[in-house]
Specification:
InterPro entries: Peptide/Ni-bd (IPR030678), SBP_5 (IPR039424), SBP_5_dom (IPR000914). Residues 90-497 form the Solute-binding protein family domain. The chain has two domains: 36-291 and 580-601, Periplasmic binding protein-like II (D-Maltodextrin-Binding Protein, domain 2); 296-573, Dipeptide-binding Protein, domain 3 (Roll), CATH 3.10.105.10. Helices cover 25% and strands 21% of the residues. The chain contains 15 helices and 26 strands. Strands 2, 9, 10, 11, 12, 13, 14, 17, 18, 19 and 22 form an eleven-stranded mixed beta sheet that branches. Strands 5-6-8-7 form a four-stranded antiparallel beta sheet, with helices on one face. A three-stranded antiparallel beta sheet has the order 1-24-25. A hairpin with a 5-residue loop joins β24 and β25 (594-595). α14 (530-543) packs antiparallel against α15.
Length: 603
Amino acid sequence: MKKRLMSLMLVVGLVATTVLSGCSGASKSSVTNKDEINVCLGSEPQTLDPALNSAVDSGTVLAHLFSGLAKWEQDDSGKAVLVADAAEELVDGVENADGTVTYTYTLKDGLTWSDGVAVTAKDFEFAWNRAASVALAADYGYMFDVIDGYDEVWADDATGSEKLNVKATDDKTLVVTLSNAVPYWNELLAFPCYYPVREDVVANESWATDPSTYVSNGAYTLTDWSHNSLITVTKNDNYVDASEVTMKTINFYLSDDANNQLTNFQNGSWQLIDDVPTNEIENLKTNYADEFVVAGQLGTYYVCWNINEELLPSTSTLTGTEKTEAEAEIRNAFSLLLDRNYVVEGIAQGGQVPASSFVAMGITEADGSEFYENAGDSDSYDGYFDTSADAYADNCTAAVETLKKYYTYDESTKKFTDVPTLTYLYNTSEGHKAIGEYVQSTLANYGVNIQLENQEWATFLTTRKSGDYSIARNGWLADYNDPITFLDMWTTASGNNDVQFGKGDNADVKAYSLDLTSYGYDLNVTNGTWAETYDKLISIIKSCTDDTVRYELMHKAEDMLMSTGCITPLYFYTDLYMVDDSVEGFFSTPLGFKYFMYVTYAD
C-alpha cells in the first residue's frame, strides 16, 4: 500500500505496537475531553471509497468506518492477529476436485449500515465485484485475482457481464471460491478493498465525499469532513461490537506540515502525529522518550523511474531491445551512486536499514528465513548490490564506468556532459524533500541535472499513476505478509504500476526473457514483452501451491523487476510517530494501520 509519510526498526514478525503511559513530554492534564482523541496521519486523502483507496493513512480511517469479514486486533502478547469481524468466524476452505477452494461465511446477527439498513451477504458480493471490475479500474482491482472468475472478468473478449465466483446464497451466507489455495487469504479479508459497500449508496458517484451521503458499516460513522482541515468520525452505537469500542470520537486532522504537527502535539492539541521534522528527531528521542515511537514496519522506501522516460543522449542511435537494455544499465548505475548509509543516518535518522532489494525486510520465506537475505546471486552480500559503507566507493567507480558507455565524460571535471535533464517528483514532506535534494546534489556531482518538483498528495498520486514524470519518490508497505504483495503490483494492468511496465511505448518492447521449463511449466520466452513474461510469471506464482517452487518463482520475479533498474530501493521502513503518554489501548501493525477505537486515557 502506498506510504505517504517519512517513517522511521526492523520487523521480525507481525507484532503490533502498543503505547503505554509514561512520564515525559506532554502532560496528561493536556487532554481535557476524554471522549475524543485528536490525531494527524497526513493531509487530505485522495478518496474514502474503500474500493478506490490505495494509501495507508486513509486506509486507517476506513478501518474505523467499515467492517469487513475479518479485522486486525492485538492479542495479550502484543501481536497483531486476525479475527472475525462481520463474519461469525474465519472458516477453513474446502478443496474441490478441480483444485479450487470454497469458503462459506455466515454473517453475524444484527449487522447494520450507518443509516439503519441491514447489512447482507449481497452487499459483500456486490462490493467485491465492483472493486474487481473493469469499469471501476481500481488500483487494487488485481487483489481479487485469487478469486475464481477474475480472469473471465478481465478477458479481452469479456462482455462486462462476467462476475467473480462469489455468491450470496441468502442474506447471511456468502460463498466464495478461489482458483486455488491462497496462504494469505484471511489477510485479504481484512484489507480495505474487501470491505462491503451498498449498491444504492455508491450509485451516487460522489457518495464518498460528503458525510451526508456517506454510508458505512463499521465501528464509527463519518460525521464531519472539512476538506483539507478535519475528518471526524463518531462511535456507531449500532455497530455489532459497539460494547468493545471505548473512544467516542476520533478527529483526524489533515496536515502534511511536520512542524505544524509537532507544534500541535507539544501544546497538547493532538494526541498522535505520524510525522516529525527530521531535524528534531535526536531531540525527540531524548526529551520525549516515552512518546516518540519507532516501531517495526514491513515496507520499502524507494525511487521509481518511468520506464518510458528517455535517458539516452540525443546523439544515441540505439533502438529496440538494445535501447531498453542500455537504459536499464543506466538506471542501475545511477542507483549505485546513492549512499544509502548517508540517507538513513544523515537524513532519516530513525533506525532504517539500507535496502538493496524491493521486497522488504521482515517478509519471510516458507522456511521462516528472510526473503531479502536470499535475493540476488551474491555470496558476499544480501540483495542486488552491496550497501555496506566500505563498498560505496567501488559502487561509484563501477557506476561511472557503466555510464561512460552511453554518455560523454569530461576527464578534467569528472562529469558527464550530455545526460538529459530529469525531474524528481515528490509529495509535500520535509523528509521527502531532503531525500530529493540529496539525490539532486549527488547526481549533480557527476554532471546530471535533476530538477525537483513538489506536489500535494492527491495530485502527486495522480501524476505518478499517469506516468507524467521522470523520477519519483515512492514507498510501499506490505498489504499482507507475503512477498507477492511487493511483486504483483508491477503487472501491466495493475493500478499500482506507477513505473508503467507494459504500458505506453514499453508495451511493444520485446526485451524480456523467461524460462520456466525446469519448473515443469510450458513457458520459455526469449525477447518477449512485459505482458508475455512478467505478467505470465505472476499468474503462475498465484496458481502455484508448491511452497518451494512458489518462493523460487517469486525470486525470479524480483530478479526481473530489479534488472530493469526502474526500482531504486533506498531503505527498509520503520514507523515513526508520537503519541501522548496518557493514551492507553492504541495499537498499530507493521502493515501501517493504526487503531484508536479501543483507546482510553490514564487518570
